[in-house]
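Pinned message: reference record for Ribosomal silencing factor RsfS
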Amino acid sequence: MVKSKKVGQSTYISELAIHGIQEKKGNDIVRLDLRNLNSSVTDYFVICHADSSTQVKAIANSIEDEIFKATQTEPWRKEGLEYGEWILLDYVDVVIHVFRTDKREFYGVEELWGDAEIKSYKSA
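Predicted structure (tokens):
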């Protein structure tokens, strides 16, 4: 029973993150469901990109705001805020990657988790 509550919470956090991305017009939003992969380090990856570092930072702030308003949860860890090329927000069961467009293409995070179930979302 505890497992299903945790999975439900991670799904909810991933949906809040997607909403935060949509609020700031993030591009090419995808959610990778990693729950059924043996080598999984988290339940979900949420990935998007933007054309400028300013927009990348705005998206990351929007994600944090949406999740905090709904759950009073802060990220366990965050990285990349200084330069705004690849910001990582780690909520343990959900890890959000906000890339500048060229960095997303370069790192190809989605390809590293090719076995994951991938769902795409429209920008708002």
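Pinned by admin. Summary line: The chain has one domain: 2-121.
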